[in-house]
Amino acid sequence: MKKSVIAKVISIILIIILILGVIGLVFLPDLYDLFKDASIKAFDAHSIWYRLAFYLCYVICLFIVYKLIGLFNVIYKKSPFRKEIEMSLKVMAVMFMILFLIVIIKSFFIPTLLSFVVAVLCFLISLSFYLLAEVIKAAICYKNEVDLTV
């Protein structure tokens, strides 16, 4: 499948996000303190569980971006109806569900409206990725039947 201009731009943006994200991982406490509200405690003042959850969310997001880059490469270098695409989508659905759980647990201890909104978005995105994986799975079965018929 030939890459469109938009797909090339999105691929480049995802690669830039991944590179900046990996670099930002080293400076995460400083970036947190730089962009936080004045009423929020400094990163090091939070409990170890909060910091661990924050790092975990960050790493999960980097992993999702990495899987998206791989997904783009597989789709445009090979057929879009492949088992590895289905598996990548299911893995991303699980990652978003883990993000949902982390944010929901965080919301019990530090309740904010934004946390609940992010949790709901993560849940909906997780369901969307899972649904897309099931559609790809059905398309693979249909394609295999058509290939066997021909």
From TrEMBL:
Domain of life: Bacteria
Presence of the UniProt keyword Membrane in the record: yes
UniProt KW Transmembrane helix keyword: yes
Keywords for the protein's UniProt record, in alphabetical order: Membrane, Transmembrane, Transmembrane helix
Membrane-spanning residues: 12-32, 52-76, 88-108, 114-133
Protein name: DUF2975 domain-containing protein
Annotated source species: Candidatus Aphodocola excrementigallinarum
